[in-house]
From TrEMBL:
Transmembrane segments: 12-33
Keywords: Membrane, Transmembrane, Transmembrane helix
Matching NCBIfam families: IV_pilin_GFxxxE
Protein name, UniProt field: Prepilin-type N-terminal cleavage/methylation domain-containing protein
Organism: Pseudoalteromonas spongiae
InterPro entries linked to this entry: N_methyl_site, Pilin-like
Highest taxon above the source species: Bacteria
Lineage of the organism: Bacteria, Pseudomonadati, Pseudomonadota, Gammaproteobacteria, Alteromonadales
């Protein structure tokens, strides 16, 4: 009597195992790619949020304390005159005399210059910035760099009221 001992798998069993494992690997790869894209988008939005938060803070402080309408010499520049001595400048100093702040976008950097002092980089990561004055309201549109979210392609708009100017007019 001859006994056959089965040691191993048949070709059909190996092919089925290969097909099942390939299907599982394809599914895992798809999930990994989806999670990776989600993480990248989340990082882009986080960076955009930080750019917006800081820009809003800097422009709000500057524009709310001015008593005059800013000027826009070109698409990426705004000039804000601060007639009050001791006001906080964009470079965080408090000049003892009235001063002029010039905000400019150069090479994805928002820069600030107080009077004739050297320009300071306030933040990086801006693709575009534009300004518009609408009465006593300044509309600033920011487009952060590397933001690949279609619905945000036109950027974000920050509206800042010229509170110091409005109060000055109300008191006079």
């Amino acid at each position: 009597m001859i006994k056959y001992v089965k040691n191993g798998f048949t070709l059909v069993e190996l092919m089925v195992a290969l097909a099942v494992s390939s299907f599982l690997m394809a599914g895992i790869s798809y999930v990994y790619i989806a999670i990776s894209e989600s993480v990248d988008t989340s990082k882009e939005l986080e960076n955009a949020q930080e750019v917006l938060r800081y820009s809003s803070e800097v422009f709000t402080r500057s524009l709310k304390q001015t008593k005059t309408i800013p000027t826009i010499p070109n698409a990426n520049t705004i000039v804000v005159e601060q007639a009050t001595s001791g006001a906080t400048a964009c470079n965080s100093t408090k000049p003892a005399v009235p001063f002029i702040e010039t905000f400019t976008l150069v090479d994805s950097q928002l820069r600030c210059q107080v009077n004739a002092a050297d320009e300071q980089v306030l933040l990086t990561g801006l693709q575009d910035i534009s300004y518009r004055i609408n009465g006593n309201l300044v509309e600033i549109t920011l487009v952060p760099e590397n933001l690949n979210v279609d619905m945000l392609a036109n950027g974000f708009r920050i509206d800042i009221a010229l509170s110091g100017k409005i109060l000055e007019e109300a008191l006079n």
